[in-house]
Amino acid sequence: MTGVQKKKALAKRVKSRSTTGQAEGPYRSVDRFDSLVTEDYAGKDTLDKLFDYAVERFGKADCLGTREVLSKENETQPSGKVFKKLILGDYKWLSYEEMDTQVSQFGSGLAALGQQPKSTIAIFCETRAEWMITAQACFRRNFPLVTFYATLGEEAVAFGLNECGATHLVTSVELLETKLKNVLPQIPSLRQIIYVDRKSISTAGYPQGIQIHSMHSVQELGAKPENLKPVPSDLAVIMYTSGSTGRPKGVMIINSNLIGGMAGQCERIPGLGPKDTYIAYLPLAHVLEMTAEISCVTYGCRIGYSSPQTLSDQSTKIKKGSKGDCTVLKPSLMAAVPEIMDRINKNVMSKVQEMNCVQRTLFKRAYDYKLEQIKKGYDAPLCNILFKKVRALLGGNVRMMLKATVMFPDRNIVRTSVKHYSCRDSYTSGGYTKHDKPHPRGEILIGGPNVTMGYSRSEGCNNEDFFADENGQRWFCTGDIGEMHPDGCLQIVDRKKDLVKLQAGEYVSLGKVESALKNCSLIDNICAYANSDQNYVISFIVPNQKNLTALANQKGIEGTWEEICNHPVMEREVLREIKEVATSIKLQRFEIPVMVHLSPEPWTPETGLVTDAFKLKRKELKNHYLNDIERMYGHK
């Protein structure tokens, strides 16, 4: 059998099958049908053991890399806004052995400051090497690590710190001075604050009773013996959510949850090892990024740190003419949430639209041809010449991108395979049942050693989302609606919380509407909205500034960006394109928004309208645009 034939056979094979023979499952991967994978390496059943094993094997190899900041400049835009721009140098690397030394010293220093095993310690910090050093120090010393997104607001962080009762906090100078300082009086349990930056700060204005240290000074406090090693059932992390549905909730994750989840993740990455370079830019307070980085350390990959603002040459903090992190690092692996993937796709397609007619036609034909060849098991290498500039946007060497559910690498179409899952027998209130034709549908439940222990003591948290069956198997109710295909692949088709029943009884999937309409050239982001006592959908939209401004010029409309967005002609033009796109992809009449509001301000985690993973915060968006909702629904 040739290589191509093997690829085709793998792509067509059944990926999973029901363990009971019933349509609702549970389904399990055929690769692990008899038992689920629980460990990467036999006997390495806690996070500290994984790290020790990695140091033993890869000692002098590069592990964590950080770019030097050579200079900072302020750049004033024509609108008057001032943007900070960076000129960055090369990556400077810590070896595995050097990282191990820092981990040991920091863990010892934390113990010297009174941190006790099995007592929580919090981290509120941007994605950087010091975050991972802190995490490994805590795993080694059996300090359960409580994580918070760096973009959480003051009140949300104060709430989480009070709830977990941590006495020690690791953070950065910027977050300490801009977000924490004002709310420290509201956090009576906090005693020690450690900032990761190599600089000195003034402690004036901070509450009495709180000591502030640099990470470097804590590492110099001296040796303190490790007196309680973790076991697989010990709590490793309490990971606070980004608060998309209100107050952030702490998810309790034990060592065996992370070990099992990473073992399954790494099985899906062929050839993972020392030849790989991973670029780290997503929030480390997100389980995808944290497990991806720990997995990379485990397998000898090097990790180069980045941020969404410095990722590419065109990123917002990169000075024009300077190189972004991808260009310098040339990663082979990276993680991406759907919104990031959408942005990459939109940026590429925007460049394609700027090509002349011949170039555009050639690109489109090459793209369609390569996609068809991939489905057949071929590569179409000649087409890659046309795509060289596209690959260069991410450094030119990316071989695999990781998402929250890691697919089989031999899948050639966009449907998802996970290790162990079930479709609930129905979600009838949304119109989905196990008897649906041609494929059964229902709520997706995930079971396995990676399923966490549920939410911590947050009031109002629904721990009913987690349960154990009669065999002791833990399950998580995802809230996603799935459709099972004959080849054992699971396609996510909806989200329970995104379903709204209109006045006339039709169900609208807001997520489906948003996903479809992001194809509009005038739209960068969209939030669909519907009330059950109304019979039509409306939407809030962040327009594509370049395309909408060009259209405004064609229409003879002048003014500031805000004035263009608020112009009724521009609203009508966006609605016109929405209807064209919606009709071409066959959205139902009742699914198509009939009124829109154009927002001149983008939705970022800093605005509080989207999470760090750029998921819409529907409650916050509703409150933010309440006046516009009343206007569009005709309320007085």
Automatic annotation (TrEMBL):
Domain (AMP-dependent synthetase/ligase) ranges: 85-355
Q: Does the keyword GTP-binding apply?
A: no
Which GO BP annotation is one of this protein's? long-chain fatty-acyl-CoA metabolic process
Chain intervals with Basic residues compositional bias: 1-16
The broad enzyme category this protein falls into is: ligase
A GO-annotated cellular component:
endoplasmic reticulum
- Region annotated Disordered sits at 1-27
Enumerate the UniProt keywords alphabetically.
Answer: Fatty acid metabolism, Ligase, Lipid metabolism
UniProt xrefs under SUPFAM superfamilies = Acetyl-CoA synthetase-like
Pfam families assigned: AMP-binding
Q: Which positions make up the signal peptide?
A: none
Record GO terms (molecular function) = arachidonate-CoA ligase activity
Q: EC?
A: 6.2.1.3
List the PANTHER family: LONG-CHAIN-FATTY-ACID--COA LIGASE, LONG-CHAIN-FATTY-ACID--COA LIGASE 4
Name this polypeptide is given: long-chain-fatty-acid--CoA ligase
Question: Which gene codes for it?
Answer: acsl4a
